[in-house]
């Protein structure tokens, strides 16, 4: 493959184009099967990754969905605003904006509507006509916003595991996902009955012993529960079993967690690499109301997920206030996070009238057992978007494009091909 790097200046606030500018980085990927001259005539495909708060994928080869897409497209991989090589937003840079109120005001411009408007600035800068957007997970949420805000910029819209609810408060999402995560816990422990005891042992140990991650921060029982993110994958779920099988150091009199286990857990539970995920996660569901730590409030109805339950279940993507007390990358941002949770004047992310009249060819994969983006809510949204074809499947979980991205992309592209 060949790559090229691009850096674009975009308005922080797109309603004030003459105001402050920030930078958005993007990397272009082209198959070397195309000559340089031929590649210049290929249409663009923009990939909007999951998140929020994750940088664009760093591909080392054209494999999976990228291999399929590169046959017909130039691929543009964004570091969405605030991530990667774009103008950063983290515990180091945000305090330079001022106090928590100034930081929260700044971050209010980091949702899907701003990402879509960044894409339109970039599209025009590249001289592209309407292009294809491929959105995975949160990238699918952004794609729905794109269809609402700037459908004239789209030739096709492809979505995997990312049909967001168009209306309703954030707690509606968590009522659905808690139930799905509980069912996935039950499924997992049925496959690996010994892991139920292993999780109990680790949780009990952490409640009484001071175990430190390689970074020096304490691993608490509730923080350990975040390894449940692995339950959201077809094959990653088996990685959870392998993680647990050598949790404790063998051959010593004093019971201690192994260094290998702690190193792997740190990679799963730390938000040092993507603090925007924790800061902005609930805001991706907010339209005209405060989220008020919705996942934390809905937890009251699901005591089986509490760390002090007799047999606590593992968590999914829920963001809790204690994140900002226990993760050193988030501690300086705790007050900012609270202000974002209290913010009640979030604007609309979707135009339901525009979506209902949508004319852009669109296709979406809905994963029947997805624990992060609920099937029922996804199909409700699908029924509200015109010209959207849906492929519902139980063959994949949320990370389907990691398992068979080439086939998934080819299927969706064929479903949405306007030609």
Task: Describe this entry's structure for a reader.
By secondary structure, the protein is of the alpha/beta class. Helix content is 38%, strand content 13%. It folds into two domains: 2-166 and 350-416, Rossmann fold, CATH 3.40.50; 170-342, no CATH class. The longest helix is centred in the middle third of the chain and has 22 residues, at 170-191. It is globular and about 65 Å long. The chain starts with a strand and ends with a helix. The relative contact order is 0.14.
List the helices and strands and how they pair.
Layout: E1 2-11, E2 21-30, H1 36-39, E3 44-48, H2 65-69, E4 74-79, H3 100-107, H4 112-125, E5 131-136, H5 138-149, E6 154-160, H6 170-191, H7 193-208, H8 221-224, H9 236-245, H10 259-269, H11 275-280, H12 294-298, H13 323-326, H14 334-342, H15 352-356, E7 362-367, H16 375-382, E8 388-393, H17 400-416
Parallel strand pairs: 3-4, 3-5, 5-6, 6-7, 7-8
Antiparallel strand pairs: 1-2, 2-4
Protein name: Alpha/beta fold hydrolase
Pfam families: Abhydrolase_1 (PF00561)
Organism: Sinomonas cellulolyticus
